[in-house]
Amino acid sequence: xxxxxxxxxxxxxxxxxxxxxxxxxxxxxxxxxxxxxxxxxxxxxxxxxxxxxxxxxxxxxxxxxxxxxxxxxxxxxxxxxxxxxxxxxxxxxxxxxxxxxxxxxxxxxxxxxxxxxxxxxxxxxxxxxxxxxxxxxxxxxxxxxxxxxxxxxxxxxxxxxxxxxxxxxxxxxxxxxxxxxxxxxxxxxxxxxxxxxxxxxxxxxxxxxxxxxxxxxxxxxxxxxxxxxxxxxxxxxxxxxxxxxxxxxxxxxxxxxxxxxxxxxxxxxxxxxxxxxxxxxxxxx
Length: 285
Known about the structure:
single chain, Cyclophilin, 2 domains, two-stranded antiparallel sheet, 10 helices, 20% strand
């Protein structure tokens, strides 16, 4: 009996592991196909994308915004069917420090912070990173500037609050005196006030993973922790370059439309790990 129970348990475990499924996404374009995986670490974005792709919502949409050495944006379902009920919902941000904007990253577009302070994602629009490679010095300067810009923006918001009226008057007086060094010192020393009013601020220190990626395969490091990365292109990287190099006109729209069809294939996780072990890691999946 014990042997039978053990055999049955092992058989169940083997069957369960074999039956674990996941999805492989294929973007079909006139420049070729791109294949991508979606991350379990961003479940709401993954579920939403699969739902839209399986329904055919993405088919016959275009890469409507293309910026060379940066990204190719697509998924504007509302532009395809303007007379139908629009997709007007958003998805809560699902930031994960291991999911970064390296080349091939699949991420959600969103509205700007001014109207979207929670950084919630568009219900359908996404982009794929082309980016470029950076030197260590460029990365260090970028992170310093990001932190400084964030602190300046939040300091400006502080001055708009009634309880900081005295500080606002002080800054105005310093401006009138032309004492910008003193203003800069005020901004740099405002960390505690900013954290008190707006909560803990992002750490703009780059991880070893980020530095390795951005100095080798390249990407767009300035988007990390601001936009949700929810997938990665695992085949067809040259297609990204081909689309990124098309001729564009107003609003970075390609002069000749680049249409796509999106297919969803269900495969075993074992098979996906075997094919794409570099990207299909346990910490991301």
